[in-house]
Amino acid sequence: MSTGLREYLDGPHKAVRDVVRDGLAANAGLLNAGLDLSRDEYRDQVLAVMQQVTAEGHTGRGFPKEFGGQGDLGGFIAGFETLAFGDLSLMVKAGVQFGLFAGAILHLGTSRHHEQYLTDAIDGHLLGCFAMTETGHGSNVQALGTTATYDPATEEFVVHTPNAAARKDYIGNAARHGRMAAVFAQLVVGGETHGVHCLLVPIRTPDGESMPGVTLSDCGPKLGLNGVDNGRIVFDHVRVPRTALLDRYAQVDAEGTYSSEIENPDRRFFTMLGTLVQGRVSVGGAAINASKVALTIAIRYADRRRQFSAPGSAEEALLLDYRMHQRRLLPLLARTYALHFAQAELVDEFVRIFGSDGTDNTEGNTDGEGGLGDRDEHDRRALEAQAAGTKSLGTWHATETIQMCREACGGAGYLAENRLAALKADTDVFTTFEGDNTVLLQLVAKGLLTNYRESFGKLDPLGTARFIAAQAVEIAVEKTALRTVVERLRDAVPNRNDTADPDAGLRDDAYHCGMVRFREEHMLAGVARRLKKGIDAGDDAFEVFNRCQDHVIAAGRAHVERVVLEAFLAAVQAAPEGPVRDRLKELYDLHALATIEAERAWYIEHGRLSGQRSKAITALVNELCAAVRPHADELVEAFGVPGAAVDVPMVVPSQHE
Amino acid sequence: MSTGLREYLDGPHKAVRDVVRDGLAANAGLLNAGLDLSRDEYRDQVLAVMQQVTAEGHTGRGFPKEFGGQGDLGGFIAGFETLAFGDLSLMVKAGVQFGLFAGAILHLGTSRHHEQYLTDAIDGHLLGCFAMTETGHGSNVQALGTTATYDPATEEFVVHTPNAAARKDYIGNAARHGRMAAVFAQLVVGGETHGVHCLLVPIRTPDGESMPGVTLSDCGPKLGLNGVDNGRIVFDHVRVPRTALLDRYAQVDAEGTYSSEIENPDRRFFTMLGTLVQGRVSVGGAAINASKVALTIAIRYADRRRQFSAPGSAEEALLLDYRMHQRRLLPLLARTYALHFAQAELVDEFVRIFGSDGTDNTEGNTDGEGGLGDRDEHDRRALEAQAAGTKSLGTWHATETIQMCREACGGAGYLAENRLAALKADTDVFTTFEGDNTVLLQLVAKGLLTNYRESFGKLDPLGTARFIAAQAVEIAVEKTALRTVVERLRDAVPNRNDTADPDAGLRDDAYHCGMVRFREEHMLAGVARRLKKGIDAGDDAFEVFNRCQDHVIAAGRAHVERVVLEAFLAAVQAAPEGPVRDRLKELYDLHALATIEAERAWYIEHGRLSGQRSKAITALVNELCAAVRPHADELVEAFGVPGAAVDVPMVVPSQHE
């Protein structure tokens, strides 16, 4: 059965996933390299493996054929996700080089940049950085302090770090290997600031010396990912030619005239940033796959390790036969499947919008102002929200799952040789990078509140309140619409508080979907109402927003939970009939009911669940854990994690003695 | 204010705490030693600092004066807890040497062992291991596989590892420094096995060579605590003299006659193990103090770092002014205070029972069978449950709090220089060692169910079910008693579901205590009822237990939550009137309501909370976060964590540039 299930999980990019699996198995030595090498040796070994993989031609998969790529963006993402089965420093290093650095050139540059740099970036000859984050600014990218001031006398930009807070920080590839950086800076032309733009700035000579005016330093040891050389960059009036500006969305001519086809600066900024959504798509997928590695290890261990003997039995009981152990691991297993399918749906949508070679399906389909047409703009914002949401839930899931797996393996889980330590340490920052999860969920909620209108395009959460003030009438309309939706749902999902049988319909997928949809819509309507009320009362905009920030974030999360659940259900329905679908349906039920159980207080508070029915759900989650348990080994087998990553001493002692 | 608060927190052992604080400040270099030294160098440096501290005479504080100690057990624990403000490898190494190894000699040995070894163990000349855990057995100590077989021909014990599962594993001090081990093994005398006993076995020569028949190996790198040399020990028919047996509770004479004043083998085993409760007391306190370090860093960072500007303000808002940030950090701050006072209460009780020099206040007060008298036996079991519960909640709290602090500090929190990385990695195993938390909570629940009766003394969770079968009548009686309690509580805590004002009485401490006590009693009665029902139906005992294992653990947890809440309330009531008490009362309210909020689903399900009142509690938690926020800096200042541990670059950049 696990073969059929694995094929179904691997989906259309199975071949790429298998290539990466083979590559990881061939480079299994890297899995333990972080343990005994010095930090710089480990970094160099990660680079060496990356360059070897590059030489085999895999890393250009997502790029246009004319620059040495293969025009297969979906395969590229699938391959990247699969890298998360191996050493995560290698994955992150590759993400920095091919996703972020080469991606910025592809998406923000024009043919001149593509021709000059893309082939070298894709084949790893030109190692680069993505220099966005600063010491003083992470989430609020619009407030970056680095400046790039145009000097028409020499036709150069002067890149400068005006203060300590504007220092580029945590930049992958900066401490040791990067030779060039895609630098995000406030563009100043003719004394006027035009907001954040991106320029290519050489930071090291081929010999590894810092370029004049560039001060590079090392972020030093980190909790994990120590095979990646994160560093800091300070610019002291560094001059680069005018052509260094990645000028797809805005140009500066020789005389110093700034122009952009997108007139609204906010809209321009978010259009540029939007092209970089691939990073979030990739990190979410990587986090979900890292969870699979941890679960494979912990579930196999629990299916072998015994503790405490049952009465009348000489043999102790298997850990996985204990209810508490099932409760700790199996709902997380079900949720990993759910997120897997939600991620697959996201990647499909990403490829649909960006095209199979990553160069935009929307090219030429503009609004006559240089921006995207309305429909494409809408699709882009929807994709960004979907990527932000999946990234948030996927990365928090990884943190929770790997922690639980470590605890479930006791002291053995704490030893580096059993790999949970590295998984835990390496993935921990996933909840932060490519967007802090709490900020991302605000972005999700904001998108829902405004129906993705361009006038609401600021990441700044305070913009929410200001916008609401301006759109009070429209919000009122939306509220009415929502109320209708809620009433419709109420009819579709009969309140069973009075039913004699509290179990009735608990495994009915229409019930699950109705519940999570009700929660999403209700929370969203509540946020809109509270925002409007505060604005109507003339309260301070920050106060209005801040008073319901927790509610905003919870609403964003409720939306993503609904999307994930529906993706899982769709995957169950599309699965081959027979054991594969049966197994998935069981896991789906466990995931759906565990999701409702986790928010049962809210459902009861809002009259959607009686206390009795709530208890019935808890009992059914327990039953479903017991039903899934006999298949647990097969279910992790189906993830197809290479043996080198999971055949650790505590699971397969014989291989190590 | 923070001075008064700090004095109140420091309590009677303030002087000792200050001595340790000064010592940590003087050895601040150790805080970063783990980052760049090799593993062995780091281990040696930890040993060097430990020996220096030992030379200053601090480590013997808890031991009898005749062996170089100071007879101040409370001060010893306070000092140990305070070590958690510094490098945690040092703390754990000291815990292994002085708490576990020297503790085993003190509690399980007799005068011959005390005179021969205790002074050397206390002054650090004799480095030792506590060799209990095996590869195949952690929580189930009674099933250890190592054997110690008496050979009357030579008057020796033969210590042996019969199979791979019986290998001693994760043993601190074993990989590099330990010269002797307190080895727990099945004692075999005259062909009869008498259960687990402890013997002193030399494992290394003074030159560091393994003793003949002893194979030592290294557990290798770990997620954290890499300054501690955890290793493995395999014995191949190693001979030690008869006097190597720590024979306080059982003796073997020259001819090979085994005798013990405690006839029941289970009771003997748990009496021996019970003397080692100090480890759990210490780890819980250390975890709570590690949480203080993380909160000090994260709250000071949040009170300095700005992000996103408020409308009409040029300056961005402080992280700590965002509701979500308050929500993430401040209930954890309040809970840290609660656990601090619960821990202080536990230490007082520990010292009351063990005496100020650790040699038992109960000596001579026996039951005539060599065991403890009934009252002392009851107090011991209660102390063990209290220690197990506080350890569980304290260590899970540390894991959660440090994780949240890391995320709240974003990318900066991921850098080793900001110390959250080490705190996270080092404390992670606290939920496992000195007893896995889930197993410990079962121990707590078991104690409550049986009113600490000796006949229910097996750690084996399956014993629960067997016992219940034998005691069915008594359980029925207890149920009746419980029902009375529950009814009494119901009267004392009016159900306010119908009250017009859902906020009424929410800050009344009698309400909080009534709620948590109701939950505890109700859950416990439910467990008893379910166990009895299964046994009455003749179901398989493992099944009966396993079906409500999650319920058993939740009941144990509910009990500890109640104890913690009451300890905090008692501390508020005993605090000096004025700002100290006011501040504590506010934190107490936040803790109490956040605790009820976390379980609000249960309270609603059981008719103790209406949906409306539940929402009012959530709103009040938000308000209390806002009320605590202006004092947050002062509240972490009062923990008195030495500057060297918390003045990290992201908080105090000027000191590092």
UniProtKB/TrEMBL annotation, chains A, B:
The keyword Flavoprotein applies. Residues 13-124 form the Acyl-CoA dehydrogenase/oxidase N-terminal domain. The keyword Flavoprotein applies. Keywords: FAD, Flavoprotein, Oxidoreductase. Its cofactor is FAD. Belongs to the acyl-CoA oxidase family. This is Acyl-coenzyme A oxidase. It comes from Kribbella orskensis.
